[in-house]
Amino acid sequence: MRVRMEHWQLLLELCDRNPELITNKFNGPEGKAKAHSLWKTVTSELNILGYGEKPMEGWRKALTDWKSKTKSKAAAIKREMQKTGGGSNDAPPLSILENKLLAIMGTKSVFGDEEVPEIGFGNHDNDEMQNKVFGCKTESGQAVELRNKTPINTSDSIPVTQNKPQNQVHDYGQGSGKENDCIEDNEDGDAEQRTVKKTKLVSATKSIRRRPQQTLHLSSELIQLNRETVEMFKILNANTESIANNTERIVSNTQSIVSSLNIIANVLQK
């Protein structure tokens, strides 16, 4: 039995309500029983659509294959985006349903831990690539302007007197929100007035990232919508032509019937 669009849509709804179907992680002593019960319900819901039936293992394999295929397409788009100059954009775009599947699976599941940037050190090229993969629109040009306007750090000076020579650096970690104190000695080792710079770090997760709209590339959702609209108009056009032809036949038959009735009437009058 061929899996139809209606099956995928319903399967996505069920996965959204039950993420365990995607992760296949059913914890606890009753995990195996819970998995069997849940997949039994999913199988019943999918088979009741009326397009044919699959056994439970058939639907599980269908979902596994779909996840694997979608991850491969996303990886291909990622490789294109990482090429010099942004790539040639030859990788096939993701469909609306594939984008929804990736959203449920999550970035970590698709790309792994190495794709998650550390706080305060965001990889903007990687962000653009992932937004491309998930069919999102970005506005990075504005992000540059906003980052220029947003103070990354502010400094004020506090005089401090040290009684003996020191050469120490206290770094409490970037992105931790704590202050970084830097104290250095002069060549003579004499105590002098030093400046402790209090740096306020702004977490990169709170910054607004926007990228310019890519007007040259339509999103996969819009392309899919246009294709469906064209197909709909083709069907409507074919139906309209069929109705017009049938109407002409009815008119022609009606005229023939009227002519026959007139002949019969003339014969009866004679």
Structural commentary:
This protein has helices at residues 5-17, 20-23, 31-47, 56-82, 96-105, 107-111, 124-133, 140-149, 220-269, and strands at 159-161, 168-170, 181-183, 193-195. The model is unreliable at 113-216 (pLDDT under 50). Helix 1 packs parallel to helix 5 and helix 4 crosses helix 7 (124-133). It has 270 residues and is mostly helical. The strands form two sheets. A two-stranded antiparallel sheet has the order 1-4. A two-stranded antiparallel sheet has the order 2-3. Among the domains are: 5-135, no CATH class; 220-270. It has nine helices and four strands. The chain is elongated. InterPro entries: Myb_DNA-bind_5 (IPR028002). Self-associates forming complexes of several hundred monomers. It holds the Pfam family Myb_DNA-bind_5. Residues 8-75 form the Myb/SANT-like DNA-binding domain. Keywords: Transcription, Transcription regulation.
Task: Write out key terms for the chains shown.
single chain, 270 residues, mainly alpha, two-stranded antiparallel sheet, Myb_DNA-bind_5, transcription regulation, transcription
